Amino acid sequence: MSSLSRELVFLILQFLDEEKFKDAVHKLEQESGFYFNMRHFEEMVTNGEWDEVEKYLSGFTKVDDNRYSMKIFFEIRKQKYLEALDKKDRAKAVDILVKDLKVFSAFNEDLFKEITQLLTLENFRDNEQLSKYGDTKSARGVMLAELKKLIEANPLFRDKLNFPTLRNSRLRTLINQSLNWQHQLCKNPKPNPDIKTLFIDHSCGQSQPNGARAPSPVTNALMGGLPKPAGFPPLGAHGPFQPAQGPLPTSLTGWMSNPAPVAHASASAGPIGFNSSNNAALLKRPRTPPSNSAAIDYQTADSEHVLKRSRPFGLSDDVNNLPVNILPVGYTSQNHGQSSFSTDDLPKAVVMTLSQGSAVKSMDFHPLQQILLLVGTATGDVILWELGTREKLAQRNFKVWELKSCSMPLQASLANDYTASVNRVIWSPDGTLFGVAYSKHIIHLYAYHGGDNLQDKLEIEAHVGSVNDIAFCFPNKQLCIVTCGEDRLIKVWDANTGAKQYAFEGHEAAVYSVCPHYKENIQFIFSTATDGKIKAWLYDNVGSRVDYDAPGHSSTALAYSADGTRLFSCGTNKEGDSYIVEWNESEGAVKRTYIGLGKRSVGVVQFDTTKNRFLAAGDENMVKFWDMDSVNLLTTTDAEGGLQASPCVRFNKEGILLAVSTNDNGIKILANTDGIRLLRTVESRSFDSPKIGAGAMVKPPSMGTFGASNATVAANLVDRVAPMASMVALNGDNRNLPDVKPRITDESIDKSRAWKLIEINEPSQCRSLRLPDNISAMRVSRLIYTNSGVAILALAANAVHKLWKWQRNERNTSGKATASIAPQLWQPTSGILMTNDISDRNPEDAVPCFALSKNDSYVMSASGGKISLFNMMTFKTMTTFMPPPPAASFLAFHPQDNNIIAIGMEDSSIQIYNVRVDEVKTKLKGHHKRITGLAFSNVLNVLISSGADSQLCVWSTDGWEKQTSRQLQIPAGRAAAPLADTRVQFHQDQTHLIAVHETQIAIYEAPKLECLKQWVPREASGPITHATYSCDSQSIYVSFEDGSVGVLTATSLRLRCRINPASYLPANPSLRVYPLVIAAHPSEPTQFALGLTDGGVYILEPLESEGKWGTLPPENNAGPSTASVAANLDQPQR
């Protein structure tokens, strides 16, 4: 078929879709094979219409076309089979097995036998691999995510997943243009041509059947659409037959497919640009979760290859093999349709009430320290609460910092009434800044350094009149602030300097709220106005890309789910009607409207989302909850009474605490079981040091701490909107309140005198657990928690891996690693071990290394021999590659593409290896001894390497060229071993990193590798064996050859706690045991694990009554008052 004929099919598809001929549309899609409608496919899969699914697929591929197609059909038929078994319909299951699944036995007979054996089980969940299989709905959701990735990777679907960008009613437009041309050719053209048919050409002759006599086409469009509900009028054509003008683009995301043809500055210098033709196409699949690579990520835990073939071996089961994949991707982390959630997960128990003094207007929990609550009030007060102790850490009253710099209208307004209300408070993604929007012109930006340490950073006169909303965004890898106001404008400001970056105008009423978001490399902002209009903006000066109405023309706030894949809005119109809805981004239409909101006489209903699962709104003096997947009200709570008519509501990051405003100017804190447990761990302990009075600020640290305010977590805004746990003190100005300085000095002295280094010497002073082990013990060379936090993986010196898993039960409802409950040393039913290839060398002489895939399905590992890829569920070796020499000494996955691996080698080179095509893309040379550490930064797009030569190197991940290098500063009087390891790890801000060497811990700032701080331990502790950041980057855990573990404060590198070996190791004078490796739990900041020289693995946590390891040391140079340690040697040095 010619190109024009193909395009005609697309025009017909558009016409049929506009006329709502739904069945005809999909039939033509299938028969032509030109366009695969992913949305239609999703609906069929979700509804379990398996015959229709395969019939639709048949228009594009067959089972045996290629490995991708085979896996697509296999997954569908396998799911159909499992559902029949789940319904106890054995006859149907056998029929599916024989007719549908038998075809795959030719490729792997063992697979077919394994599937057949499920018939013998009363419940197929008794099969170990299917033990976590949830309900039908969640299973279909998991499979659908897998199928979409396979379809996108299948070359047969290439160029068939995106519908061409067409103006509305393009076919009608072309016909109108044709008729215009025919009309121009008439010898005596009539002013009002009468078009009666399209079957013959038009002529204005009297005797012609297609002549004149019709009303004016201005009011009677020639090609008007057939009657259809809720249809959008067609976009106009040209000439006398022009229909009525159509609306602006109606899709929430489709507007990004056609950016205006203007020149954009480069990413480093100005607004974000559409520099790639892929950007538009990427946004046509808004329902597909964002992916950072074209390659398919690890998705399943395979037990066998069904398709056996030689290399290249890709690191995804869709690329080279058809896996067993009886259990699809982990059900425990599924967002939608997950059966494990219940109303018990909602925080509904009132645990405390806080008194504010004035009406609460806005609240926000700290993204990292989840018991810190920021509150803004109607009188302009901003209060920071610590819920564990129910105390105010700090308070700021409304005050203009630089009144003389303000505009005359603002000065006049303040002269008349020096009061203002807080409209919004919000934390930055990493929790080091927060912004306050006031009802009069200005915003304030504060730097937060922990505890009660607030620092004035920026005051910006942002708008004329009220500043209605404020949010943080990250265009061009630069932290910015978005504001909107009564002056109908949206503005973007540099969060470090306060310079205005952009100003967007186009609303015809006051702008009520802003919602910045990020979708597949494109940053944008939604804005809503009080007249119910919703607009969208890119970071350029072109204008709004979307213009449509909120439900009921309401004042509406927009919010994404935590994973950034679902968009919701909630608002109230002038008539008092409220709406809470989910949007279908791809169509610009409301996907579902939630039922249960009442009518109100005043105020706008407020809402929040949590756990990618629940919605909550304050309405009718209560909190109402919905399941995101159901329009009906799930449950409500009045929080024991006293709530406002439309109370403010705010979840903390984990959704275990909920703050709700009350009628008497207070806040009630609601909690679920986990929230109550969290508060109990901290409520009995005192604060780190005496608190400064309200309104005062402590002196900021003298050193530059970590970075500038634009050094935040870009990955956080790439993957989801929810803030990433990161706590980096940002540099701000040094402005202090004039009456504070004497009190700061006095209290700093008091703190120095009161503070003591915490020494833990007894088992009763902490919680520790040695993990059970019945496998021969060899020293632990590598140790890591799984990303989900439910298991620990160790690699021993004999090349054997060990995996411990915790089970979810009544004693451990989260199922995460804990020192309170012993885990199971897990092995598959086959009894095999994950054992690395060791070639001909003694594994004791090798340098072991491993790296874990992001979804915990695979581990890549080496112990001096070939690199092995293991399946974490079955322990089977998927493949081996890269035989020595040289041997691998360190492994790191590329953060955007799991098929790209950086491999540090014993010969001092670094190989950038593409597993999919079995090819070394490039070799990096800059070290002189073996590579001992690798760390990627997806913010700076660099790779940091470290070696046994005590050198750090920075490599660009764009072209893999070397940018800079730095030699470690070995402390005076300390001698390093000739091949001492140097490890590197990035802070959560992806800009700062620690370098770990046996002589020191040092903090560097990338990419220039400026050494900001260096910490040298006391010699009595022996060399440092390993160190790691805690998951929140607040602490650094350091292990030593004397068996002790030190806990440092990450920002200052000051020792605050020492855990001596007697507190966790049994006494054995004849055996010298100490930790070789240390690993931090991925979500519990105070938990870490140790791998010991005797093969043991220990987990350590502080006592529940303490809730932390020691207290923060003073920020000045005063040492601890205890004489039990050589304090001076444990302090940071430069």
Automatic annotation (TrEMBL):
PROSITE patterns linked: CTLH, LISH, WD_REPEATS_1, WD_REPEATS_2, WD_REPEATS_REGION
Keywords: Repeat, Repressor, WD repeat
SMART domains: CTLH, LisH, WD40
WD repeats: from-to residues: 460-503, 924-965
Domain (CTLH): residue spans on this chain: 34-92
Pfam families with a match to the protein in the record: LisH_TPL, TPR1-like_2nd, WD40, zf_topless
Region Disordered: start-end pairs: 1108-1134
Biased composition (Polar residues): 1118-1134
Signal sequence extent: none
Annotated GO biological process: primary shoot apical meristem specification; regulation of DNA-templated transcription
PANTHER family assigned: TOPLESS-RELATED PROTEIN 1-RELATED, TOPLESS-RELATED PROTEIN 4-LIKE ISOFORM X1
Protein name (record): CTLH domain-containing protein
Species this chain originates from: Daucus carota subsp. sativus
